[in-house]
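Subject: complex prediction, re-run

Hi both,

The earlier run crashed halfway through, so I resubmitted it with identical inputs.
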Amino acid sequence: MITLDEELAVQYRAECREHLASLEAELLAIEKAGPAIDGDRIDRAFRAVHSIKGGAVFLELTLISAIARQVEEVLTLLRSRKITATPELITLLLTATDRLEELIAGLGSPAAANAIVTALRQLCAGIRPIPVRGDRRPRILLVEDDFTSRLLLQSFLARYGECHAAVNGREAVNAFRAALEQSRPYDLICMDIMMPEMDGHQAVRECRTLEKSRGVLPTYGARIIMTTTVDDVREVILCFKELCDEYLMKPIDLAKLLAFMKSYGLVA
Amino acid sequence: MNGYLTKPVDLAPMAEMLSRWLSAPGAAATFNSEALLGRLMGDRELAGSVLQAFLEDVPSQLHKLRDRLDERDPQGARSHAHALKGAAATVGAEGLQALARALERAGGAGELEQCGPLLADVIQEFERFQSALQRSGLVETKTP
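This time it finished cleanly. Structure:
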């Protein structure tokens, strides 16, 4: 783990406090409810750990992101009812929360972190099938108000899929809704944050709400990459709280963007 | 005189001004073509078309900025400066990016009197960028 610049560390800790508390509270409530699954609770727990992960990835805190990623995976399986909320499972998730808390406080050991990652990974091994997208060309929505940046991304992305462009968040949400209604959802969205009419935060929130209303589970919907010049961990965590998948700083390095697309199986 | 700051002195504009005068080699380049090509995975053709789009788009952006300042609308200027900053970053116009950032901040802080001189600097830097671009051979030079 790298040593955090003290100011960044203070910001990150402050931002995580609320999310750690929320994660723990939801897990305890899920434990209390037994095997009956409350989807909204799991969604809230997911959102909390996803926010923690987003900041950790941005700050290159590899142990924290590794644990958070595995917790996400378990929550996704719980949410899709591929596993049940046994007391052992909840205990494991609560232990993971403790490990996260220690690491975020600057304590904790790599050995303990790796142990919980391994335990969680074993739980998920072989359960989650890769979502089937078929072999159709990916459908991509690019949301960007700046002409130059839009031209760059559109020229590049059009090589890999059918690429549509929107110039603000409102246009993006309308395009996203229409695509869902036509059962031709987007696979990938590149979303700027600061835009006129409707900003990227609100647009992501509305897109995720539309997906949820159609029963699309978190992480099974469109992949959303925020593209922005805002270099601030609070901003990053806010975007992840809205359930974006990645945060890519501008000017965009196309190799990084391509690597994300490969990791999502959108590019061979 | 080379510049002025209104009192009480705000440290951010002062830092911008100092960094412009004292910028060492390796600081904001007028046109960092190496970084641009690096980000574009060496695709010179893509770089050419993006640069061409930038050249065509910036004059209208500068007009809009001028209009916002004439209308004494610092927040409007801020949002146009933000867009210009993003575009400049995209094409490796680092000097322009830094100036647009300064303008964005000044607009955001409602400091209209700072914005005018900054816009003049932005226009001057855009001219420098065009010259640097011609030397780079990444875009076709128009014969007058």
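Chain B has a mean pLDDT of 86.

- K.
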